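## retry 2 of 3
previous attempt timed out at serialization; input unchanged, resubmitting
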Amino acid sequence: MIYILKSQGILLSMPNRDQLREDILKTKEFCSRILGISSKIRYAAVMNEFGRTIAGQLRKNVVPLFTPVEARNENYIEATRTRFRRNFDKSIGKTNFTFTENEKVKILVIPGETNFCYVTLDKEAELTEVEQIVDAIRKSFISNKVDQ
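## retry succeeded, writing output
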């Protein structure tokens, strides 16, 4: 479906509903595969540049630590941090990932071109495991074109 705003000279292309459903299903499958990378992964999601969850999945039998409001705020904060970091791409290079260690959970953010992958890990996850998880997710993120 294509919309043209002739008076403003703008051409907008809108994907059809079937394409949107297919993209969401593909992203949900991607999140499920992320959970399969390590038993230390609690939650995996793909967020857009504004922190809205495109798709996400919590590992079975894991209790969320955030309330829905806290989760929305956390996602917005990570999206904002990711956008701000892009300002430094020319001077220090692109961000490969960010890692935040809290008392109860570890948070991993892996930016893509437009979206980002948000993953929480058990507090027992070791840094060597984190590097392996990042590598596996980046390969899958790129090869599955989830970031488009």
